[in-house]
């Protein structure tokens, strides 16, 4: 019986697929899910073979199904259909190629974009946007004024997804003459590109209640980074749409203009939790110490996401007033809440929280364990050194790693043997950090440096190791952006030179977490 079943699901059957092609989308997807679960590779083969069935309906079903299942192994078969004689099948194949995300389809899709049939060209334009390959940009620009509205809209949408700055002048030039969905698509593309040249038009459109995608436009006002948008964003904090208010708060935080703090304080009690959460996040970016009381009160918010963001922001601000309420929340029933509370307590660095954090080193959620151990390291609590043994012997290498790093942050020589015990850890990252920490704690520099070199450590790791061993001064001639790995190395060496370097290395504006870690590290230095 099993053999018969396997033969049935692996044999091509144009008639069966033709029958399913007439069903609803939900039914088709349920059917495909069942086939895929039973035999993934067999289903892909069967559907690929069905692309040659005589029925147009079956070919369309098979192409759409391959896009839905999402395995790039079908790309070559779909390209053949895209370049074939069946317009209907090519239409579905173009869509499927966009879903599969394989850039080997870019050139065939560019060719299809220049073809004869509008439906195929329209899906080809959409798919090129999904693939996000810059090779498509000049070809999309050539058809931006196509006679067919669907093609124009997909072209504009693709240019936005491609972050095509070269398209901005053309998009702005066309904007005044557009209306309806085409105007909306153009504004969304300009918002995704977030070019300063579009600021004025995006500001004006952000208040247009007839547009359904205003949150994207409002977010772009923050991403562009021009504080002339602050008055517009302050006004949008009172918009009737909660998602617009939330994005306005986010953008005000992104812009970092402290003029926004007073009005943001009034929105800390907004009826929508999404808005409150965005406001609390903005307080962190704005370093809004005057929001401390509001944030402490928010630790009792009915919405867990608001509690989590309030806790995180209080940590970034270094609020001593929040320590006792946060300690109480370490017993919250929700692991994500405990995780953010542990982060906050470590960021504040008050040793009153150490017992509560130690109690969570064996939490049922490894994420909570991770933050609790990191927090102990950040507060340099020597009384917690031996409590780190649990993490140092954990089955998860990531927890062993943070345990070793915590030993390095505490910096007490009594932890040396614990670091040395990890020299033979099965994970290379744990071993490399164990060598570095052992150097800091006074281990034998000659043998440790020899072991570290065998680990094929990076030049930056070796430079930190030489400085920790006293073999060479730290020169700090690092270029490029700051990363979490670099931040950890600079914290470990902990000199005025590494502090100056940390303060000078740029951080991506999109990396909120790393920006917060830098603020916390410099405050705790």
Short note summarizing the structure:
By secondary structure, the protein is an all-alpha fold.
The residue ranges in which pLDDT falls below 50 over 5 or more consecutive positions are 1-11
Number of helices: 34
Strand content: under 5%
Mean pLDDT: 95
Query: How would you describe the oligomerization state of the chains in this entry?
Result: single chain
Please summarize the sheet with the most strands: none
The rough form would be described as globular
Radius of gyration: 28 Å
Structure description:
This protein has 525 residues and is mostly helical. 66% of the residues lie in helices and 0% in strands. It has 34 helices and no strands. Helix 11 packs parallel to helix 13 and helix 16 runs antiparallel to helix 17. The termini are far apart. The N terminus is likely disordered.
């Amino acid at each position: 019986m099993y053999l018969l079943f396997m033969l049935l699901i692996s044999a091509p059957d144009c008639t069966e697929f033709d029958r399913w092609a007439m069903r609803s989308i939900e039914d088709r997807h349920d059917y495909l899910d069942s086939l895929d679960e039973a035999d993934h590779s067999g289903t892909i083969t069967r559907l690929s073979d069905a692309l040659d069935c005589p029925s147009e309906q079956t070919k369309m079903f098979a192409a759409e199904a391959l896009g839905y299942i999402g395995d790039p192994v079908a790309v070559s078969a779909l390209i053949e259909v895209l370049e074939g004689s069946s317009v209907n099948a090519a239409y579905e194949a173009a869509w499927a190629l966009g879903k599969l995300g394989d850039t080997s389809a870019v050139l065939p899709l560019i060719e299809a974009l220049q073809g004869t049939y509008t439906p195929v060209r329209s899906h080809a334009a959409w798919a090129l946007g999904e693939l996000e390959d810059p090779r498509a940009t000049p070809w999309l620009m050539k058809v931006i004024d196509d006679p067919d509205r669907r093609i124009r809209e997909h072209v504009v949408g693709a240019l936005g997804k491609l972050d095509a700055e070269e398209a901005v002048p053309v998009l702005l030039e066309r904007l005044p003459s557009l209306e309806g969905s085409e105007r909306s698509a153009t504004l969304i593309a300009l918002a995704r590109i977030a070019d300063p040249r579009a600021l004025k038009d995006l500001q004006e459109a952000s208040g247009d209640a007839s547009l359904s995608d205003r949150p994207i436009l409002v977010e772009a006002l923050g991403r562009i980074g021009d504080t002339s948008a602050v008055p517009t964003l302050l006004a949008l904090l009172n918009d009737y749409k909660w998602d617009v208010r939330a994005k306005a708060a986010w953008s005000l935080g992104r812009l970092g203009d402290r003029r926004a703090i007073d009005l943001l304080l009034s929105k800390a009690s907004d009826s929508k939790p999404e808005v409150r959460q965005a406001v609390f996040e903005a307080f962190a970016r704005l370093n809004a110490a005057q929001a401390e009381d509001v944030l402490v009160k928010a630790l009792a918010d009915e919405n867990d996401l608001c509690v989590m963001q309030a806790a995180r922001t209080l940590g970034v601000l270094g609020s001593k007033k929040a320590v006792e309420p946060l300690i109480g929340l370490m017993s919250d029933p929700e692991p994500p809440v405990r995780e953010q509370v542990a982060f906050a307590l470590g960021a504040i660095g008050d040793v009153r929280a150490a017992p509560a954090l130690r109690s969570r080193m064996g939490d049922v959620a490894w994420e909570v364990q991770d933050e609790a151990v990191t927090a102990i390291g950040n507060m340099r609590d020597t009384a917690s050194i031996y409590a780190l043994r649990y993490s140092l012997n954990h089955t998860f290498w990531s927890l062993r790693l943070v345990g070793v790093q915590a030993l390095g942050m505490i910096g007490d020589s009594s932890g040396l043997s614990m670091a040395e015990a990890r020299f033979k850890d099965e994970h290379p990252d744990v071993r490399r950090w164990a060598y570095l920490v052992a150097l800091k704690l006074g281990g034998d520099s000659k043998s440790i440096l020899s072991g570290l070199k065998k680990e094929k450590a990076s030049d930056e790791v070796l430079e930190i190791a030489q400085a920790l061993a006293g073999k060479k001064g730290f020169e700090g001639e690092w270029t490029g952006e700051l990363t979490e790995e670099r931040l950890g190395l600079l914290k470990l060496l902990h000199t005025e030179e590494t502090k100056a370097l940390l303060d000078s290395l740029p951080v991506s504006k999109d990396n909120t977490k790393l920006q917060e870690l830098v603020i916390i590290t410099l405050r705790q230095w």
